[in-house]
Amino acid sequence: MNAPLISIITVVFNSEQFIKTTLDSIAEQQEKNFEYIVIDGGSTDKTLDIIKQYNIVDVLVSERDNGLYDAMNKGLNLAHGQFVWFINSGDKLFDKNTTYDIGQVYLKNPDCDVIYGQTQLIDEKGTVLGMRKKTAPNPLTANSLKMGLMVCHQSILVKKSIASQYDLNYKVSADYLWVLEALEKVQNIVYADRILSSYLENGFSANNKTLSNKERLKIMMQHFGFLPTMWAHVKILCRYIKEYKK
Length: 246
Description:
single chain, alpha/beta, 9-stranded mixed beta sheet, globular, 34% helix
């Protein structure tokens, strides 16, 4: 049995400052059990020039789109891998052995639908800021997401056969819904017990927190119901108060 083909998808637009970090992390992988898809929104800076310097890109699309999640849907539609994995501009795979280790996890659990792990935070200069505050729980279930996006989008690989299209009605939190829907469908989920990605904290959702919270509340109400959602928010509030007092 061989390790599965992973479709790594990067969505980028006018990101000449950060795209090299992402590309370098893909290029250094010791295990090449992946295809690499880059969806560019029609960049007008040097982003495309930088991308074209690398020979690791299997599919490159550069055209105008209808926003981040429309671009991510394009990547999904072009993916041929058994699993899809979104590593966007500024984010990176944790180390050179990441894809190898994921392959080993799969070989021990060949019937898995989702593989996930932990996330390290980095700033715009690539400096490590520490671990993500929301630690991915083990086990991870759809109910885990009542407490927020408990697994970073950059640290979860979803089998393409259960991956939904991103809902373009949500401008900031379609990734939360995407992960939630995958966890509602999953039959076998495996914890990789390692850091899978380094996430650029100054990201899209981080810069739109108010809208993100509103959209997530709407999604939670639809999937969990009114009372479970309200109770979850009480627990979230208590957690933040506890952390603030430290």
